[in-house]
TrEMBL record:
InterPro entries (alphabetical): DCK/DGK (IPR002624), Deoxyribonucleoside_kinase (IPR050566), DNK_dom (IPR031314), P-loop_NTPase (IPR027417)
Keyword Cytoplasm carried by entry: no
Name recorded for this polypeptide: Deoxynucleoside kinase
Residue sites binding ATP per the record: G34, N35, I36, G37, S38, G39, K40, T41, T42, R169, I170, K171, R172, R173
Top-level taxon of origin: Eukaryota
Pfam families xref list: dNK
Organism: Bicyclus anynana (Squinting bush brown butterfly)
Protein's UniProt keywords contain Transferase: yes
Active-site annotation: E110
Any one Gene Ontology cellular component term annotated for this protein: mitochondrion
Length: 266
């Protein structure tokens, strides 16, 4: 009995080592989603302590400076004119993040092409900011990427917030481009995130969802983020053991579990 257990353990270790050394191995990819001001950057910063996790933050600085043009500012000030241009560039920069190679077993991304399409582009379409022809182009571009270019998504972390809470955070952080953002915009984005990730009444949810209460202030939120370590790293190990082309994290799994909503494709 003991010998069989030892052989089984050694076999699992050999499989993990083989996966980590495979040249085409893909990391366990986590998409960190949430409203403006929900604390996505703070969440990613918490995971800097893990040596085997690559963090990819939203390319805001690229949106602020494309050959000297601040597309983010232009979009907020005149969305009817600049929404199409801005979202086209967002798609390109987010696709670059999705496809960026990493040498670590786990990759955490701030937002994704999915939220760009299902939350922000969808909002622009519903509000009439985008002409139907402009929306059609962006939607076809998204569908083409889904069909022709692999977009990895193994887990979604949804930082669930109350619109009024994040609205106050936005005002406190005083990002110049966001000063004209009304509470109604935050509420509408919140509803789209809920429809996509919670009620699942709209669009495709490409991976299981881990929901975290992100209304807490910074003195409390760290404890919630520590709890998420267990689910993220445990699920990463499970996926590795079941897939021939995934890497495996080396860090030990600690903390308690948080409920995960089941995957659902509409």
């Amino acid at each position: 009995m003991l010998r069989r257990k030892i052989r089984s353990f050694c076999y699992k270790v050999d499989r993990l080592i083989h996966k980590m050394s495979a040249p085409n191995a893909k990391p366990f990819t986590v998409l960190v989603e949430g409203n403006i001001g929900s604390g996505k950057t703070t969440f990613l910063e918490h995971f800097q302590q893990f040596e085997d996790i690559t963090l990819l933050t939203e390319p805001v600085e690229e949106w602020r400076n494309l050959r000297g043009w601040n597309l983010l500012d232009l979009m907020y000030k005149d969305p009817s004119k600049w929404a199409m241009t801005f979202q086209a560039y967002v798609s390109m920069t987010m696709l670059d993040m999705h496809r960026r190679p990493t040498s670590t077993p786990v990759k955490l991304m701030e937002r994704s092409l999915y939220s760009a399409r299902y939350c922000f582009v969808e909002h622009m379409m519903r509000q009439g900011t985008l002409h139907p022809a402009q929306f059609a182009v962006l939607d076809e571009w998204f569908r083409f990427i889904q069909r022709e270019i692999p977009i990895e998504a193994d887990l979604i972390v949804y930082l669930k917030t109350t619109p009024s809470v994040v609205y106050e955070r936005i005002k406190r952080r005083a990002r110049s481009e966001e000063q004209c953002v009304p509470l109604s915009y935050i509420e509408e984005l919140h509803q789209l995130h809920e429809e996509w990730l919670v009620s699942r009444t709209f669009a495709e949810c490409p991976a299981p969802v881990l929901m975290i209460d992100a209304d807490l202030d910074l003195t409390q939120i760290t404890e919630e983020y520590k709890k998420s370590e267990h689910q993220i790293l445990r699920r990463a190990v499970n996926v590795v053991m079941q897939s021939p082309n995934k890497l495996s994290p080396k860090k030990a799994i600690t903390g308690s579990a948080i409920k995960i909503a089941p995957r659902l494709t509409l």
